[in-house]
């Protein structure tokens, strides 16, 4: 059992069973923004987070409309 202690009191504040650890976890994850740049026109130097969310939502709505039309709705 892995534990974490409160430094001030020495009491256990977290207890974790190692069987629940995920062996494939990595220390850091890096993404490739190429698709966001090419498909959505995202520019990390000019696009705010809020604007990126808006662009992504518009893109998803357009895809949903296309799929609905292809199914004859």
From TrEMBL:
It comes from Anaeromassilibacillus senegalensis. InterPro entries: NAD(P)-bd_dom (IPR016040), NAD(P)-bd_dom_sf (IPR036291). It holds the Pfam family GDP_Man_Dehyd. Residues 5-56 form the NAD(P)-binding domain. This is GDP-mannose 4,6-dehydratase. Gene3D superfamilies: NAD(P)-binding Rossmann-like Domain, UDP-galactose 4-epimerase, domain 1.
């Amino acid at each position: 059992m892995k534990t974490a202690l409160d430094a001030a009191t020495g009491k256990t504040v977290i207890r974790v069973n190692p069987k629940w650890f995920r062996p494939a976890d990595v220390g850091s994850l890096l993404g490739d923004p190429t698709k966001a740049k090419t498909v959505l026109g995202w520019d990390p130097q000019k696009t705010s987070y809020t604007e990126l969310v808006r662009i992504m939502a518009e893109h998803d709505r357009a895809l949903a409309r296309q799929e609905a039309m292809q199914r004859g709705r």
